Amino acid sequence: MSRLTVLSGGAAHGLVNMVTEQFTADTGFRVEGEYSAVGVMAERLRSGLRTDLVILTRSLIAELSREGLVIDGSARDLGTVLTGVAFRTGDTASLVASSEALRAALLAADAIYVPDMTQSTAGTHIASVLAGLGIANEVQPCLQSFPNGATAMRELAASRFARPIGCTQITEILTTPGVALAGPLPKDCELATVYTAVLGSHGLYPDEAMHLLSLLTGDGSDEYRIRAGFI
Question: Which of 44, 114, 183, 214 is the most buried if burial means most Cβ atoms within 10 Å?
């Protein structure tokens, strides 16, 4: 079976999985995806990785377009993703509706599961939130960092700590078994990120890539995107 290659930020992993079965039935192709921090994925594309469909933040897609690595005119937005706080299924959800409540929840946790704090969209924002709340040094020993949010959430689900919480993009929380959403970050700490899908300039299967793009962003995809956590 031929394979369509997808290079994506972790935020879109669950959504792609939702339409993969339909895509394979329609085209006879299987989807082979690579999902991680958006900065890492952008560098993978820049290194020469041949990719049919690229899903990253809108701002990164604009950079890659200027560099000639994606096909101009093919980009479509998937939607906006908020960053939120997660808790292990079975635990009591932390209150995070205000910055004061978020600060208290982070200080009360004995482990905080996060994506890469230098390369991922959510991770870099979380680092700035911790600094803004004045607790970066205090919670440093509790930070459990992983290459992407999906991995961080899987590790949270399996955590043996007594009071763990996690923070990453809501799409990665909603699509990970064993964790649940406590809520989005409060307004004064909010991060809303638009994700965009686009055809890679050196992909082998542009027609099939466009079909997958249509499944992800077309009129019939609204239910999938809402379930996956896109606004």
Answer: 114
What does residue 225 show for φ and ψ, rounded to 5 degrees?
-65, -40
CA distance 209 to 91: 41
pLDDT tens digits, one per residue of 72-118: 999 999 999 999 999 999 999 989 999 999 999 999 999 999 999 99
Residue 40 contacts by C-beta under 8 Å, 6 or more apart in sequence? 116, 119, 120, 147
pLDDT (tens digit per residue) in 187-206: 999 999 999 999 999 999 99
| pTM as predicted | 0.85
List of E strands, the chain: 3-9, 30-36, 53-57, 76-88, 111-115, 143-146, 164-169, 179-184, 192-199
Report d(CA 122, CA 225) in Å as an integer: 19
User: How far is the C-alpha of 57 from the C-alpha of 121, rounded, in Å?
Assistant: 8
Question: Looking up tokens 């093919």, which residue turns up?
Answer: 74
